[in-house]
Amino acid sequence: MNDLLRASVRDPMELKAFTTPRDNSSSSHHLRLCPTAATFFFLPSAYTLLFLTALPGNALSLWVFLRRISTISPTHVYLSHLSISNLLLSLTTPFLAAYYAQSSAWTLNSVLCQLVLHGVTPVLHISIYISLVILTWVALSRFAALIQHTHASRPSTCTTLLPHAFFTRLTKVSFASRVCVALWAVAVGGIVPVTVYYSVKEAMMGNASSVDGEAEKGSGAKLCYSPAVEIGGSLSAALSVPVIILFFAFYLLVLLSYITVMRHIRRSRRSTTVTTSQRLLGKVFRNIVIIQVVLSVCLLPYHIFKPIFISLAHHQELTNPPGPRSFDRCHPLSALVEVKNCLYLLAALRSSTDAVMYFLLDKSFRQQISAVLGRKRNKSRERAVWSVTGSVTQKTGQMEDENAATGNLSHDGVF
């Protein structure tokens, strides 16, 4: 009886917490993320540097593809769309730098937090996965052109499996343009609904559940950098699985083309001595190796870690016991969230290296960049020569004037 009387005079919020059981799925949202210097200093600095390098590099690349190259090939179409996706990604990096630098100060309802959730996140995902598909398609199209136009001891199996019309379309610019337009449509149509649902439903509702716990403590702040935003919910985790599988499918396709080109080169060396064929084989092999290295260094680590992170987050949701003051503790996955964000930075870092990749992949792009840089060097040299010539001419004129004056004085002295 006394217990019932004491319960009746409790605070209503405390009574709500006493009578309403918390389920395990929402208890983890009452924990807070505890960022370190990696979030406050390293990530903002890296994204700022990425903006300063990716924006001018990809803007110059797109200008070269659209204005400087007269004969457009399918590869130029793919690389120009890759530059557009990289430009979009580079425009999101200042907001990401501000997000990580001010992660403990932004509230969920602030304009900048909503901009990151609803605008920056979809653009970032679209840019990364469009780049993945375009790089894979460039590798496969060059591989297909290789096995069609070079000879070995026996024809490649791919030439018998794929129709001849497919190889013909690979050489057409219109086909490349249609492929890129379809790619943008699929990427936008597939990624935007998922990210909008994640940012509107899971992040908002997850933070709402955490606010209930913080209200018990006396604080109603809803932070933007929170487990609900950084970890997500069950639906976004489930939809991440096919994206990860898609990445490994593309990665294995590039790896398979790499192995097949190696075998094709070996057979060709045994069967022919034509130098042009060997030169073509070596060029295509180098291009596929460059794409393979870019995918392995920039995108592979994140997609290896992401399923591990999802499984750990799911396990933590199931095993974390609910507690009335669990919002006072750091989330067990705080360190892993920072690792995930650093690996995602590595995936975004690819946008600043693509200009170098264009220089290695495409001969026309390399010639135009060399011509632009060479013209700038020649102008600087001409300015230096003109400045030196002008100074020399000025000095010569002064000397002539002095000599003339001296000669006049001498003449007057003699006569």
From TrEMBL:
The alphabetized UniProt keywords are: Membrane, Transmembrane, Transmembrane helix
Q: Does the keyword Secreted apply?
A: no
UniProt-annotated location(s): Membrane
What the entry lists under InterPro entries is as follows: GPCR_Rhodpsn, GPCR_Rhodpsn_7TM, GPR82
- Where does the G-protein coupled receptors family 1 profile domain lie? 57-358
Example of a GO MF term? G protein-coupled receptor activity
Among Gene3D superfamilies, the record links this protein to: Rhodopsin 7-helix transmembrane proteins (1.20.1070.10)
PROSITE patterns noted in UniProt = G_PROTEIN_RECEP_F1_2
Bilayer-spanning residue ranges: 46-66, 78-100, 120-140, 179-200, 237-261, 284-305
Pfam families the record matches: 7tm_1
UniProt GO cellular component terms: membrane
**Which residue ranges are recorded for the region named Disordered?**
390-415
Q: What is this protein called?
A: G-protein coupled receptors family 1 profile domain-containing protein
- This chain's source organism reads Anabas testudineus (Climbing perch)
